[in-house]
Amino acid sequence: MADCCDDFTRSHLVRGSIARAGAGLPVIEPGMPVPAGTGLTRRSMLLRSAGLALAVYGSGRALTPQAFEAAVAEAAGDHKVLVSIFMDGGADSLSLLAPVNDSIYVARRPTLRLAPDAGLAFEGDPRLRWHPSAAGLKELWDDAGVGVAVAPAIGYDSPNQSHFTSRHFWEVGATDPNATTGWLGRYLDRVGSPNVPIQGLSLDSSLSPQLATQTVAVAATDNLNGYAFSTSNVWGAMQTRMRAGYAQLGSLASADPITAQARQAQANSAQLSADLASVATGAPPAGSNYPAASSAVKTRLQAVARLLGTTTPAGDHLPVRCVTLNAQGGYDTHSNQATQFSDNLLATAANIRAFWKDLELRGLADRVVITVWTEFGRRLAENGSGTDHGAAGAAFVIGKDVKQGVVGEFPGLASGTGGGLDAAGNLRATADFRGLYCSLLEQWFQTEAAGIIPSHGSFPRYAIL
Fold first, then answer.
1. How far apart, in Å, are the Cα atoms of 303 and each of 78, 80, 345?
2. I need a surface site. Which of 202, 241, 246, 332 has the fewest CB within 10 A?
3. What's the Cα-to-Cα distance from 207 to each of 222, 322, 437, 449, rounded to whole Å?
4. What is the mean pLDDT of residues 63-78?
5. Could you tell me if residue 464 is inside a domain?
6. 159 within domain boundaries
């Protein structure tokens, strides 16, 4: 990430350490919010095998193997699933959906602007055109079997231009620097099960703060396919007995609360191991057409599709409710924006399109909604070969029953009172991310936003479904 700013690097390193068991809590510099999750009563275990870090977070009581299996069976079913994809670093919405004919855009971006005939027309607003690398999103927009809701200028009032702080606000669902649970974590606290970690899955070596819970187990893994629960020089039948022994130890009750917590983490880890081991590793269905090039986002989206299609011995789907992952690459484009943005967006958009087709071919499309978001957009005026931190960015909601259209509006690029740019030259938000969250909770998950999104009644609802 050589083109990133110091703040992005600092926030990335801090966040990279917060959710790893045994790593301790990071130093938070003055003025920074506490990362969601650091305030939890956490029972965690780190298991390592080739290329894999897996952690389970949550609380609960010690369970017998029979009770644990019953809990998983009870939680299984055709749950509604939200897959959250984060464009890390502040993706440039004015390149993703570019106002190519606006004279202010042309003047402020003499080298980074898209040509008037570049990209693809955006029928949601004739002033905008899709970036050529966003062809995968455009294909979904054009597909009659799926809806795409586009927010071309989404954010919040009094925007904070720190990666760390703005991302924290989006993750916790509030402009609260002291929040320690994520908005999806609070949803899982309401509807989830105490000790079924696969219900909230972060596809990373650290827990996404979006999934930070207060009472129920959630999990993080950077590789759904490679989990082996390995120990050096142990293999074959001995390895099988070792795993069984660990699971049995995890099921034992203890009067000592610390031992009980450790055993519960072991039991949760053993169950997650069994769930992930059941995910087939074969090729995706013919016709899904994932890009040929290898990428992290491709590998993880393919694994999510297989995971959602996996069933228990009773024929029920695994109790997955929320999945988080990062888009390809990083979007903190202070320099070399044209190439870096284009390459990362191309891989992200093409793989999202293929993932959706994969879900359709597996008969899972009616269970899944995808959100794509970023912590903020970029400033209109270019700065050399890049752009600085902005305010409003772009977000997308994709799903079979999603109402196609524009959430909020593109406010234009005029300055001054009523214009689309704020005093600093950044795009003004016309939609609030908390209103989007309230709409998803109420319309997709069919659950009240009250108690999940603070001050929920003060935010607009958008017709997403």
1. 18, 18, 20
2. 241
3. 10, 12, 20, 23
4. 60
5. no
6. yes
The chain-wide mean pLDDT, for the chain, equals: 83
> pLDDT per residue over 90-113, tens digit each?
999 999 999 999 999 999 999 999
CA angle 415, 420, 426 (to 5 degrees): 80
The pLDDT assigned to 238 comes to: 79
Domain that holds residue 433: 6-458
Question: In total, how many domains does the chain have?
Answer: 1
Percent of the chain with pLDDT over 70: 77
Query: Which residue from 93, 140, 165, 152 is spatially nearest to 352, judged by alpha carbons?
Result: 140
State in Å, rounded, how far the first CA of the chain is from the last one.
Answer: 37
Name 120's bridge partners.
Answer: 130
CA distances from 331 to 78, 154, 285, 394 (A): 35, 17, 31, 13
Task: Return the number of other C-beta atoms located less than 10 Å from residue 361's C-beta.
Answer: 16
- Concatenated DSSP letters for 177-234? TT--S-HHHHHHHHHS-TT-GGGEEE-SSS--GGG--SSS-EEEES-SS-----BTTB
Whole-model pTM?
A: 0.85
Please give the backbone phi and psi of residue 383, each rounded to the nearest 5 degrees, phi first. Answer: -135, 90
**Which uninterrupted H or E stretch holds 381?**
strand 378-383
In a domain, 136, yes or no: yes
Task: Please state the rounded mean pLDDT for residues 387-392.
Answer: 97
Closest CA to 408 of 447, 448, 436, 444: 436
Check which CATH number belongs to the domain holding 180 and give it: 3.40.720
> Both tokens of residue 17?
């350490």
Compute the chain's Rg from CA coordinates.
22
* pLDDT, tens digit, 9 for 90 and up, residues 347-386: 999 999 999 999 999 999 999 999 999 999 999 999 999 9
In a domain, 348, yes or no: yes
Phi/psi region, residue 369 (left: phi>0; alpha: psi -120 to 50; beta: rest), is beta
Query: Hey, what are 76's tokens?
Result: 């299984």
Sign of CA dihedral 186, 40, 175, 2: negative
pLDDT the model gives residue 75: 79
Per the DSSP assignment, residues forming a β-bridge with 373 are 86
Contact present, 225 and 251 (Cβ < 8 Å): no
